[in-house]
Amino acid sequence: MHVRCIDNRQYLQHPSVQDAPTIPDLVIGRVYKALPDSQEEQLGYLCIVDESGEDYTFPAAYFERIDVQAQDDKDIDAQITIHLNGLDKAVLRAEALAAQKSVSALVREWIEDRLDLPQPA
Q: How far is Cα 91 from Cα 100, in angstroms, rounded to an integer?
């Protein structure tokens, strides 16, 4: 599951505190991976891999869930541009020729194999 940070104020129990300090490892608007933990979710918390690369528990109210499938449907024509230097481009072409694939097919395959991306339903 992926979530977007909508709040990063530290939880303070005293309601009169207006200017609460922020949690430095959460950036408002940034998308984070939430690890499945049904016990934490039942208590109103999510286990989030934050900016430090470690997973920590944060209040679920600090995040909104992202519907990846709905985004994929909207961004069907979205493109990514990658700029490579001449040597990297030549190596990529050589790898594609050796695999008897187009460069774009090889890159898509590498992305699918090496990245933990959500699978379409």
A: 14
Give me the numbers of helices (H) and strands (E) for the chain, helices first please.
4, 5
Token pair, residue 28, equals 């408002």
In the three-class reduction of DSSP (H, G, I as helix; E, B as strand; rest coil), residue 115 is classed as coil
C-alpha distances in Å from residue 113, one per residue of 25, 110, 119? 28, 5, 12
The share of the chain scoring above pLDDT 70, in percent, equals 74
- Convert the pLDDT of each residue in 33-87 to its tens digit: 888 877 888 898 999 887 777 888 888 999 998 876 655 555 555 667 778 888 8
3-state SS assignment for residue 101: coil
Report helix, strand or coil for 65.
strand
| Domain-wise residue ranges, the chain | 2-69, 80-114
Indicate the pTM of the whole model. Answer: 0.52
The architecture CATH gives domain 2-69: Roll (2.30)
- What distances in angstroms separate CA 59 from CA 3, 66, 81, 119, one per listed residue? 12, 16, 36, 26
